[in-house]
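Exercise 3.2. Students should predict the tertiary structure of the chain below and write it as structure tokens, then compare their answer with the key that follows.

Predict this chain's 3D structure.
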Amino acid sequence: MKKFITISIICIILSSGLNAQENVENNKKEVIKEKNILKKDNTARKDSVDKRNNTINDSAMPPHNKGVIWEESTLTDALKKAKANSNGVGPELVFLDCYTSWCTPCKMMAKEVFPQEVAGNFFNANFVNIKIDMEKGEGPKLGKQYGVRAYPTFLILDSEGNEINRLVGSSKQESFIEKVKNAMDPATSYKNLKTSYYADKSLDNAIKYMDAIRPLYMSKEISSFVEEIFTELSPEERYSDKMIPFVYDALDYPASNVLQLILNDKNNADKYVSKEKIDNKLYKAIKVWLSFYVAGMLERDENSEMLKMTEWLNRLSYKDEKGP
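Answer key:
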């Protein structure tokens, strides 16, 4: 009997142990199951957060490569690429952005115009685009070669590097693209307009040429052209409403001989403009001329010319408050 009771107790203990062990194993499985659930939940949450963050970043970033694509090379390489496109595989013209690091309008164009998709669609389809700092690397040489005097200057070149046309200054996107479209037509080139004048030396053709170069900061060219055609025009033409603004532009260029031409033609100038207006312009122009002469900035050695200019100051009716 005692033996039976002992065996029963042992069985109960073993049974309890087995149940306890089974409970432990079940508990372990539940814990592992819960951990897996938590892991999946955390992974899902992480994926959701990552997806949301990626969406935010994508929407915040500007479109990639939708603006103007610039060649990272020299102008020579850009010209070679344009020349290789002569079989119709790509643009045969080069668009050269002449800029400087300190130029505010240059920065505006780089930030607000060229990165836009509309600009990219137009320029990438029509040009091999390259931008060059005019104060670094090949910039100074190119600036001298193409006569770049203001920034930004945008040159449209053929594959040989010949200038077709140019634009100077910044513009809003739509107006700038329209200006470039017009400039792509060789017929609108200031060089062709000058050629047209020589083919038909009319006042209208002269005005068209000067109108084209006036916004390009080409004061030297205007002065030289006015000096060239001054005596070819009749007095009525040279002092006409169309022509006189360019005559005044030439007077603002101290190295020009237009000042002397008008002084020699003073009677006609007084007649077709007015003595008061002409004296006003001449007085200011002579003062500038004398300041340049004294500073040694004019290639003139004879003091007699300086004395004549001083005499003219005394003869002109206009006197400004500061005196000569």
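Discussion points: The longest strand covers residues 93-99. Confidence is low (pLDDT under 50) at residues 1-24, 37-63.
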